[in-house]
Structure formats: C-alpha cells, structure tokens
Amino acid sequence: MKTWQNVASLYQIYPRSFQDLNGDGVGDLNGITFRLDYLSDLGVDAIWISPFFTSPMTDFGYDVADYQNVDPIFGGLDDFRMLLDEAHARRIKVMIDLVPCHTSDQHPWFVESRSSRDNPKRNWYVWRDKHNGKEPNNWRSLSGGRAWTYDETTRQYYLHSFLPTQPDLNWDNPEVRQAMQNVVRFWFDMGVDGMRVDAIWGISKDPELGDDSVNSNFYGDPDSYGAFVHDHCKHGPHFREYLHELASVCDEYDDRQMVFEFYPDEQLGDIWPQYREVIQAHPKSSTFFMEHRQNDWHGERTGWNIVNYLQACGDNLPFFCVGNHDQPRVRSRLGFERARALQFLNLLCPGVSVIYYGDEIGMENGQLTDADIRDNFSPNHTPVDSRDLERTPMQWDDTRFAGFSEVKPWLPVNKNRTFINVTEEKKNVYSILNLHRNLLQLRKDMPIFRDGSLEIIHSTGNGFILGIKRELETERAYIFINFADAPQSFFIPEDAEIIASTHSLDLIFKEKSNLTIPGYCGILLIK
Ligand code: GLC
C-alpha cells in the first residue's frame, strides 16, 4: 500500500450521485465499490467520500445523527468494510468526511442536551439566554438567517452556524473534543486512511460571544451573512490548538492524513497566513487550495496563488482542486476550454491533485427547475443559488438515467449525458477523460510531478501566459498555459520535448526554442 507521501491524486465522491446499485434513485456504497475498477483505471490513488453516516438528510449527510454508522440509504457498515477492502486491494486509499463542529438536531447528544438545563450534555452545545428579549448576539448562519434558534422547552437559544437542524457543538468542552477524537479512532481502527474535516473555521469562537462587526463594504441585504465581518463567530483563541489536537490522532496510527475544509477570509486579513495556520496545525494536516473558485482568469495571478499556497504548505502535503460539492461546476464557471486548461494545470501541480466526480468528463451544472431543488441551503429554493447544480448524477453512459440508476434519480440527469459521458469519452483519444487518464498516469510514473519543486518562469503582465518549471534532481518539466483566447508565442528551452497537451499537436507549432500554442491551450514539456 502506498503511503500518503506518494499519493498523487484524490477523487471526491458525492455518494448520493455516483452510482445507485439498489435501485432507489440515490447512490450507495455498493455503487462506489462497483465503480472502483473505473477509478483504478483512471489512475486515482485515493478517494474521498462525502458523508454517508446516519442522518435525517436536512443537509444530505452533513447533519450527522450517528457518527459511527452508515445511513440505510447508503447501505450498512459491512458494505463500507467491503468498499474499504476492495479499494485497498486496488491500492486506493479511502478518506471519509468528519463533521466535527455540529451534529444533527436528531443526534442523541443534542436530544439530551435540549431536554433540560441541567442535563449532563447541556454544555456539549452552545446555549444562551435571550439578550434584551432577542438573540444573544448578531451572528448570522451561513445557510441564511440568524445563527440562533429559541428552544421553548428550556427557554434558551442554541447556536447553529448552519441550518437550525445543525446545532454547533461546544468545542471548548473537553468532553466534546474527546468524543470527536474517538470518532476518528473508530474509523481509523477500521482501516480508513484519512479524514476530510468539515467546516473547521468555527471550531473556536470568541468565548464572550461578542457581536460580529458590520461589513461597511457590503451593499447587499443588511441581514445576510455577507453583511458582517466574521471577527467573533469564528477563528477564536483556541483555533490552532483544537486543530492540532484533533490531527494528533493521526500520530497514533501508521499513515493517516487530515485535510481541513477551510476558506480563508479576506475580511480577517491576508489570506496566506490563514492558510499556513490551518495547513501547518500538525505535520499530518493540510487544507485544500481553494483560490480557483474565484474564477480570476489571469495567468500571472493564478501562478502566484499556487506559489503562495505551496509556501503556506511548507513540508505539509498540498491538495490542489478546482471544485467540490459546494461550488458550481468548473466547466460551467469557465466554459469548456478554459476549464480544461485549468484542470490540466491542476493535474500538474505538486502534492495531491483533487478531482471532483464528473469533472474528469467535463460535467456541467445540472439543468434544474425550482421543483427539482433539494438543497436546504438555497434560500429561495431556486436553481440559481443551489448546490444541487453540481450534485447531479454521474454520467456513465447516454441512457435515460445515464447508467447511474435504473429508476428516476433524486436529482435529474443532465440532458447532455448523450455526449458528456464516460462510455463515449473513453472512445475519444482527445476527450477530457483521456486527458485526465494520461496525466494521472504521468503523475504515477514520474515523481517529478508530485514531488518536484515549482517555479514561475514566464508570466506576462496581461495575464495571458503562465509558464511553470517543475524540477526534481536532474529532471525538468515545463508547463505553459495560454489564458488568452488567441494563439500566443513564447520561448521554451530548446531541447524540451512535448509530452502532453490539451490540444492536438497539429495545432501547436514548435521551431527550435519558439512555441506557438492555441488559445486556452495547456502544454507539458520535459527535458
Ligand atoms: C461544509 C460542507 C457543506 C455543508 C457545510 C455544513 O461546508 O462542505 O456541504 O453544507 O459544511 O456542514
């Protein structure tokens, strides 16, 4: 089995939408096991499975009611054990999602906690009296509305940074921290290789629960999350200490990794020290590079973001991604050609390249109507702001339900399944799927892509061309991305040889040290 020190790619699976094997329209664990050969053939070294734990599904599994069991909709613990064994047999590591900062309101801990003010679990959550007849402070929830809900039974408010059905755990209580470490041990003991740790920015809060400052640069709804600078509701005094403590559980095992979910907040200062603080909380911790979500289409700035992130990583493992289950699909954000160029770059970055399921075939946002919307985070239940867009079923083939299911799936299959699907793209040597396969193979075969240094060697002030040199011992690789829509020419080391590109070689002109590539082209050379 590989160690995390030679894992070069991670594939994120949103289990509801990957493969339905039991015919209920929702994906399941056995479906993932069934598709492991596809993942192995694609060349992925590790998978991350979004939550599959017991849950009332108000946030589709990010509202956990039992951390140590599988929700029946996804299968059972034995199905998970089988998935783990089968993945390991193919030398694929398995990372699962840990949701440590809140539970479901149906979790027995919260049921107890809300039952009376003197219940031993009362202090496992954050309860406060009314303040001047109203909420204890001005904090807003990330899923819309106030972060406080009044509970008639005990006449106090409880805190929820997300939906009212997701009460925040009180991490200042050592019993809570211990309980969460035990959850990690439960899965690590079973053989799980790593944890993606959800929404950690609120793990420590202002102990006084002071009001957040008003964001004077915000001109939208004065009641919304963005109307405030989140200087009290997150990133409290014990932030790094709690992250370190949690990740330290990795030290009790052989080869385990944690990747914290974290979005740096420009309102709270320079973003790179924030990245550094989270990534380097522990030698076995990291966080995803999230800057591509800004859609800042500029070669030079993209390059510097990558360099700054790598510096923030220090010796810790980088995780580069272009999307996830909370962001619109990269292809819909940028269009096919620009997305492909960015994906090309992402697959040639150091450390671990992360692929969100379906991005490898160029899946687009779903075509959804108001009636299709299932995500409770979408305030108006319209497709415009819904995360359902990026969660539609995986497109395996061109059949009615795209090979995802035999029955009508929980979210509609995209109509473009007729030409965007695995079966079709396997046949086309120039498909984005085969581009992923080729680059993942290179990452496996040539350690330079995972372990080599990275340096910007060419960038134009207009942001058109980004040139990167990767170096390991005597090997050198050069990556050029054309961010412009028209062909660009530039100089390359004379004896460098093209080994991969987003476009057919017929469209690329190389004469000694001069190279001309089409718009939105990515090219890889070695020397
Ligand atoms: C994270 C998850 C998101 C979820 C939220 C609350 O941001 O990625 O999907 O809704 O946490 O758990």
TrEMBL record:
Keyword terms, alphabetized: Glycosidase, Hydrolase
Annotated ranges, domain Glycosyl hydrolase family 13 catalytic: 12-391
User: Which Pfam families is this protein grouped with?
Assistant: Alpha-amylase
InterPro entries documented for this protein: GH, GH13_cat_dom, O16G_dom_2
Q: Which GO terms describe its molecular function?
A: alpha-amylase activity
Asked if the record carries the keyword Aminoacyl-tRNA synthetase, the reply is no
Respond yes or no to whether keyword Hydrolase is given for this record.
yes
The biological process GO terms on file are: oligosaccharide catabolic process
The portions of this protein that span the membrane are none
State the SUPFAM superfamilies in the record: (Trans)glycosidases
Q: Which family does it belong to?
A: Belongs to the glycosyl hydrolase 13 family.
- Protein's UniProt name: Alpha-amylase
Species for this entry: Candidatus Nanosynbacter lyticus
